[in-house]
Amino acid sequence: MKAITVLPGTAGSARLDELAEPPESDGPVLVDVLAVGICGTDLEIAGGDYGWAPEGHARLVLGHESIGRVAEAPADSGLAAGDYVVGIVRRPDPVPCYSCAKGEWDFCRNGQYTEHGIKSLDGFMRERYRATADAVVRIDQSLGFLGVLLEPTSIVAKAWEQTELVGNRAAWEPKRAVITGAGPIGLLAALIGVQRGLEVHVIDQMTAGLKPDLVAALGAAYHTGKIEDACDAPDVIIECTGAGMLVFDAMDNLAPGGVLCLTGVSPTGRSLSIDAGMVNRGMVLKNEGVVGSVNANRRHYEAAAEALAKADKDWLAKLLTRKVPAESFASALERQPDDVKVIIEMGNPT
Ligand code: BGC
Questions:
Q1: Measuring CA to CA, which residue among 241, 84, 229, 53 is closest to residue 148?
Q2: Beta strand pairing status for 320-325 and 341-345?
Q3: CA–CA dist 333, 256 (Å, integer)
Q4: Is 264 helix (H, G, I), strand (E, B) or coil?
Q5: Which end of the chain is less crowded, N or C, counting CB atoms within 10 A of the terminal residue's CB?
Q6: In this predicted structure, what is the pLDDT of residue 266?
Q7: Which residue minimizes the CA distance to atom 6 of ligand 1?
Q8: Residue range 147-171, pLDDT digits in tens
Q9: Residue 161 contacts residue 303 (beta carbons within 8 Å)
């Protein structure tokens, strides 16, 4: 079968490969992959900056945001041929640590977790994969192909959960949320904020085009300036860019008792000059909560599946701005200015 693989650590090594069928030992559920979304992590892996091949292999199959259809599943698995499913990215560490033992692999304590398409497990940019039934999520079947957005939505479903857990440490009635960044993560975070009934403000650099339209269509407000100009004292800020300065601006602008959730993985090696005393003072005197959030466990995939099932399907479809066949994977791995979510089609999208 065809697959897109990389040599981790080597920039520009992505290629269309021919691989053997997935071994039965990977699990009794056989899934035909329809499409795989590309995110910043994939670009980092393709650029040689991140990623680990499975033990004993030189190359890693790329791709962690997938949508597929079940080809075979055991009768008692709750899955049937034809079902649309999404593979869960992270798997528990082998020890397992106390978080992984409880199914909270997103909080893995020893770093020995594995991730499809990222860390020591082949990804989903291949025609077929096998898995155990508990490693896939059956989505609302009316979503179909749009289920390719489930994995990025699981990331923001977790971010919202973490935000609310921190906010609710005291009486808390959040009204306003700011989302920094109108990429797929920011837009999906805004979707969930609107579904929560909050007044949502999204900040991005693009002055025109699809992003402002997508934000407006949600019933949220779009801004290009600073947080302080967009919204007075937000109760929630979900930071989705990883831009260092925005993180500190966000801390500075939160409402008392507010929560800042950081989801952006920043590039390293850049320094900023900040008044650390001022940052600390603000956080203490305003009871601010700052929480980092990565990855997602099954609970978050399920919350994401609910959020997507409630969303306007035409709006979700507009996020998929570029679909390229597997043979043209190289163009999918190059960012274009109007991209929101780029996907690679691995099979026939029916
Ligand atoms: C994925 C996460 C993963 C993280 C770090 C992200 O792109 O969505 O599931 O944990 O990369 O590897």
A1: 84
A2: parallel
A3: 41
A4: coil
A5: C
A6: 87
A7: 41
A8: 999 999 999 999 999 999 999 999 9
A9: yes
User: How far apart are alpha carbons 22 and 20 in whole angstroms?
Assistant: 6
pLDDT value for 267: 83
Is the CB of residue 193 less than 8 Å from the CB of residue 175? no
High-pLDDT (> 90) share of the chain, %: 96
Sign for the CA dihedral angle at 310, 312, 318, 324 comes to positive
Q: Which residue's CA is minimally distant from atom 7 of ligand 1?
A: 41
> What is the reported pTM?
0.97
Ligand 1 centroid to Cα of residue 90, in Å, is 8
Phi and psi at 180, nearest 5°, equal -95, 120
- The span from the CA of 16 to the CA of 61, in Å, is 10
Does the C-beta of 294 come closer than 6 Å to ligand 1? yes
Atom 11 in ligand 1: residue holding the nearest Cα: 41
CA distances in angstroms from 326 to 31, 92, 126, 131, 346, listed in the order given = 17, 30, 9, 22, 6
pLDDT at 337: 87
- Say yes or no: CB of residue 39 within 6 Å of ligand 1: yes
107-112: long-range contacts at Cβ-Cβ below 8 A with a sequence spacing of 24 or more? Answer: 107/297
Q: Is 289 exposed, middle or buried (0-12, 13-18, 19+ CB in 10 A)?
A: buried
Interval 42-68: pLDDT, tens = 999 999 999 999 999 999 999 999 999
> pLDDT for 85-106, tens place per residue?
999 999 999 999 999 999 999 9
